[in-house]
Amino acid sequence: MARAAVLGRLSWRVGTVVALRDETPTARTIVLDVPGWPGHAAGQHVDLRLTAPDGYSTQRSYSIASAPDGDRLDLTIEPVPDGEVSLYLTEVLTSGDQLELRGPVGGWFVWRPGAADPVFLVAGGSGLVPLMAMIRTRGLTGDEAPFRLIYSVRDPASVLYGGELRRRARDDQGLGVTCAFTRAAPPGSTRPAGRIDASLLTAAGWSPDRRPAVFVCGPTGFVEAAANMLVDIGHDPQRIKTERFGTSGGPP
Amino acid sequence: MSQPPLDGNALAGALSEVFRVDVTSAIGECAHCRRRGPMAETVVYANAPGMVARCPGCDAVVLRLVTDSGRAWLDLRGLTCLQLAIPA
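Predict the joint structure of the above. Result:
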């Protein structure tokens, strides 16, 4: 610990699970209390380290879902098929358990209040998590940057934070939310189920003329496809930031 | 086990054990194709014995990091230059 302090590096800390919240039939939010948490920027993540009794240890990165809130931290986990860590976190972990974590880390895929630029968020599946931290941070700080979110998600049952997104779309001035369902759209939808395309990105996002800061997060294939479409419709590649989830996102 | 690759954002935690500044937002120049871009945009394979980052332009290895038993081995020969922000 002393060495870590001298070098100013990050060291591992221990957080305690204080609540668990089911977001969908599969995804779960873990609320952690982490004494001495230094705060975080929207979009940053933590590394979790799990160690089995036999000493076997493994790490995974998870995006922080919450706005800064003292020692509290929300992580939302979407389990991956055969994912040893994500299945443990969503099915075994209980309130009062302790987790080793390192963070906050990552300085690239980050939104900070105070920039006047419009913000264009494009989420695929659980790629919504760090973008939700941006929406929540905007709400908490009363920032007035205009935000638009396009959220590609399999079907209505898979929507993360559905009630909160509806409430914020109604109450948070300058926030627009569009859900694009890929497998099954709810009854009465104007748009049939299908992948996001250039016309949706044009209609529901910001025009490239407004030079928005663009954040795209989701599974690798989704991010590649969305980023290419955004460039094709005229967005500046230098203003598009991407974050790819390996297997942890699942198909949107 | 074949996992799709991650991107350079996933390097942040492991590199924070070695560097004081965030390396994922540093601009790296690929020694092979000279492409310049944030390390966050590299293609990262994290299920090798360590972490391997490849250039998104030409696929050359730009960074390898292995940590074990309190030591880190960092191979940066795939980068000609790394431009880092110095904290105020």
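The longest strand of chain B covers residues 61-68.
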